[in-house]
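Following up on my earlier message about fe (ii) ion. Here are the inputs again, as you asked, copied directly from the submission form:
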Amino acid sequence: MTTVDEIAADVFRISTYVPEADLQFGQFLVRDEEPLLFETGMKALFPAVRDAVARVLDPRTLRWVAFSHFESDECGSLNEWLTLAPRAEAACSLVGAVVSVDDFSLRPARKLADGEVIATGRRRFRFLHTPHVPHCWDAGVLFEETDRTLFCTDLLQQNGERPPLGGDELVGLCREALVAYQQGPFAHYLPYTRSTGPTLARLAALEPRTLATMHGSVFHGDGARALRDLARVYADVLG
Ligand SMILES: [Fe+2]
Ligand SMILES: [Fe+2]
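Thanks, got it. Here's what our run produced:
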């Protein structure tokens, strides 16, 4: 069952709960002159995600397929999207494009440098290259500057079937998820390095109002405080 919820003006959370993983897999669709999808979901989810997008806009008009890092839940159905939407272009970090995406993808990606902006019409998305945060060398996040929405990929992950929106309780739920993972085959899901704390501090300084995480509820509230709290959780559980 794939759900679609408008979590900010013209920003839609598409979410599918996968019971085998006890995890929701989310994508974010932004309705603008140049529609943008952040994260595609795995290839197996493509029909469900495409139909969910169609509830909001014509999927063939998608212009940008952006994502954080090269993993199936981030960009597994990139080629399905490039086939369906003739004007669609992948957008990811320069490292992601050079190392993996341009070899995998039907068309070359737009290679985003740290600080570069994608303008989609009314909205501007600033790309921040965040190596190994949440994980992978190529990782990055998008920050929508008008409404201060941070598309933060695996950061703030919560397990289970969660409502579309949440608040301060999400940091504690993220801690529970990380502690549980550390005790099983998914241990070391997120690396903790010398740059983890400073990178999270850099994201907190953006003072986001919304943290659009791909696994679990989207956070609404004091995003700076939540990210600083999250940094302490990471240091505690992973450091
Ligand atoms: Fe993920
Ligand atoms: Fe990931």
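One observation from looking it over: The radius of gyration is 16 Å. Hope that helps, and feel free to reply on this thread.
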